[in-house]
Inverse folding.
């Protein structure tokens, strides 16, 4: 345990001086400082996160790896401003999420963050194009604007010809691609993906990963994905290993090959 | 922060109508109890309107024949008895509990959708608006169905009791009024029934909403 923490601190200080506040050359799009989260299961408190420090650079492709029950999804909720930490702070674009009111939080979720889920979570009564355009309607775009952008995004994920299909008429991979298009609707700074390949077969999962990677490199979107899919490792700039509510180690892309060997 | 989160009523109406349309059969179950209650109330009210309109054209002897024992005329019209008001009230009470329960279940089924909407930036008020408007559509549906059924039942029962004379002087104006009131009433009850579940849904934190259906 202590060795794991040491390597985490070491890797952090190696690439970036851990200065709170502004970084000079590289902008932190997400920063977590001493984040803990405790759930109550009846009368027993359960610590899902036990003090997480993490800084994520803009444009990075970051994977959060860990077995189920490690606190991955809780961490995902923290980064996505979907839940509040028990202690510690979450900064998104250097704004403390805890300080935001309901309107600002909704604005943040709408404009700054795009979400992708394991279960796709498309609104099943809406067609593909309606799903993709919904965040843009929330953002106050006009009908012409959101229809144009929506079709462009569907084209980007290769589903322009399926725009009027309901989620139930699409395959899992297609649904996930609609979800990816939807996550990009308001050109967010961050795309957060919770087990995006978890409900897909190998090949489809790989397609989704390739798509995410190309979006990250072409559009400069920060992609953060919680996963235990080893395929994700190949495309990640950095991998954060979570175990038991703590960061076990953080690995840069260069060192990854070796660790894949270790894991497999 | 530049522009806030918006959802014009036009869009709310579109989303709610779409959701109502797609879930139509589910809605039928949710509001059937409401429709039945409205049927019952309309049946009672319309029954009196029919009797009264017939009554106005009858001789005294005929009136005495038609008016069942125990009922009296006030100002030449038959009034609703306390017992019937009580029955109607009970039926509406049962109905509100019924739709409350049905809506609670329907909202639970949609937790994930609510969580997703919140992730996309929906405000609590937007969720609330969508649910209230869906309930309004359901109320309209139940009101129309209940109204038609109630009037039909009243006509049938009057025909059986009094023969063709019962509907010879059909009170169109009064019937329209009964239908109008019952429609408003139905919408009111439907919105009343959905208020609490919708409030729960709107206040949920997205992480809770997403977790619940797994």
């Amino acid at each position: 345990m202590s060795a794991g923490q040491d390597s985490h601190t070491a890797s952090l200080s190696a690439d970036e001086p851990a200065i709170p506040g502004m970084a000079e050359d590289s902008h932190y799009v997400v920063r977590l400082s001493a984040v803990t989260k405790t759930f109550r299961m009846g009368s027993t408190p359960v610590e899902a996160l036990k003090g997480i420090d993490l800084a994520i650079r803009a444009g990075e492709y970051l994977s959060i790896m860990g077995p189920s029950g490690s606190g991955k999804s809780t961490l995902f909720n923290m980064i996505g401003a979907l839940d509040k930490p028990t202690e510690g702070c979450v900064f998104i674009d250097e704004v403390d999420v805890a300080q935001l009111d309901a309107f600002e939080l909704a604005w943040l979720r709408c404009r700054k963050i795009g979400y992708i889920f394991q279960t796709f979570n498309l609104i099943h009564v809406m067609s593909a194009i309606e799903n993709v355009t919904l965040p843009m309607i929330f953002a106050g775009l006009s009908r012409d604007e959101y229809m144009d952008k929506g079709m462009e995004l569907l084209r980007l994920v290769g589903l322009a010809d399926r725009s009027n299909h309901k989620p139930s008429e699409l395959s899992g991979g297609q649904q996930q691609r609609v979800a990816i298009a939807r996550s990009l609707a308001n050109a967010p700074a961050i795309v957060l993906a919770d087990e995006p390949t978890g409900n897909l077969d190998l090949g489809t999962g790989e397609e989704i990963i390739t798509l995410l990677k190309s979006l990250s490199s072409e559009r400069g979107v920060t992609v953060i994905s919680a996963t235990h899919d080893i395929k994700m490792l190949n495309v990640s700039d950095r991998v954060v290993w979570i175990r038991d509510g703590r960061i076990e180690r953080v690995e840069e892309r260069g060192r990854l090959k070796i660790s894949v060997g270790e894991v497999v | 922060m530049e522009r806030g989160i918006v959802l014009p009523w036009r869009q709310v109406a579109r989303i709610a109508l779409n959701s109502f349309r797609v879930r139509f059969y589910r809605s039928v179950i949710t509001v059937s109890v409401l429709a039945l209650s409205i049927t019952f109330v309309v049946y009672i009210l319309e029954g009196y309107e029919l009797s009264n309109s017939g009554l106005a054209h009858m001789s005294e002897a005929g009136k005495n024949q038609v008016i069942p024992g125990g009922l009296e005329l006030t100002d030449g019209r038959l009034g609703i008895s306390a017992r019937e008001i009580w029955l109607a009230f009970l039926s509406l009470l049962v109905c509100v509990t019924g739709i409350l329960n049905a809506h609670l279940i329907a909202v639970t089924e949609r937790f994930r959708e609510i969580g997703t909407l919140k992730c996309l930036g929906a405000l609590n008020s937007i969720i609330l608006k969508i649910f209230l408007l869906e309930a309004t559509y359901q109320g309209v549906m139940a009101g129309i169905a209940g109204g038609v059924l109630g009037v039909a039942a009243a006509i049938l029962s009057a025909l059986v009791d009094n023969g063709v004379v019962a509907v010879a002087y059909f009170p169109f104006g009064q019937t329209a009024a009964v239908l109008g009131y019952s429609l408003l009433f139905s919408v009111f009850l439907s919105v009343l029934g959905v208020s609490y579940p919708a409030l729960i849904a709107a206040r949920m934190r997205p992480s809770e909403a997403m977790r619940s259906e797994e």
User: Anything to note?
Assistant: The first strand of chain A starts at residue 28 and ends at 41. The radius of gyration of chain A is 18 Å. Residues 59 and 217 of chain A are 8 Å apart (CA to CA).
